[in-house]
Amino acid sequence: MSDTKKTGFLLPVSWRKSIFLGVLVLLGGCSGPEQQADIGTCENTGKIASAITPLIGGELAAFNVLGEPKKMPLLEFLNDKGEKTDTAAFEGKAVLFNLWATWCAPCRKEMPAFSQLQKEFGGTDFTVAAINVDRGGPEKPKDFLKEISVENLDFYQDETMGVFNALKKESLAFGLPVTLLIDKEGCIVGSLNGEAKWAGDEARALVGAVIKAGQ
Taking the CA of residue 134 as centre, how many other CA atoms within 13 Å lie in the half-sphere pointing to its CB? Predict the structure, then answer.
């Protein structure tokens, strides 16, 4: 005899199991593989943050070292060929991750500095990832970079503003430009909203320290 006939009001066993599992998921008691994978993956980021904090000042006084390091979200954008790529493509490298647009005057001023950083530090341990958010295709931002002789940066674009909105939701982006420093574990060390001299001594020391900490 089924449970419903015995009691007169109980749901079938299969239904009760489904509801129980659903409640566990809602309460966080049944985390998926992607949630579990993030646990303990920023173990060294706190040490890096402590090491670079004394370097914050001068032209980078507005740089905000995160009190609690967090994983960089998996964000999608387009590469130079117009193909989809994402932040996972930078796995194993420290990254200076920037969002910029041609209509943003401070953004335009920063691009030669990012190009210089890439020339000096770019390689297997570090890269500058500057994501353009112009609408209307890649021609205008590419022409701008060519015009100012920026040749060291790979071109990335996100016309949807999805990357910016995702970072805004995490309270990491408030406007343009915004720049995040990410360690080799894919964890955010800190961020800076607004313009900065990214080829200055403070920035070079900051980037160099993060690269060295990850080696």
Answer: 20
Pairing outcome for strands 76-78 and 84-86: antiparallel
Sign of the CA dihedral 191, 197, 198, 203? negative
**Mean pLDDT split into 10-residue runs, the chain, 215 residues:** 46 43 36 37 89 93 93 97 97 97 98 98 97 98 98 97 97 97 96 96 94 84
Task: Pull the structure tokens for residue 151.
Answer: 């040749």
Measured distance between the N- and C-terminal CA atoms of the chain, rounded to whole angstroms: 66
CB atoms within 10 A of CB 131: 20
- Report if pTM > 0.85: no
- Decide if 93 contacts 127 (C-beta within 8 A): yes
Taking the CB of residue 26, how many other CB atoms lie within 10 A of it? 9
> 178: helix, coil or strand?
strand
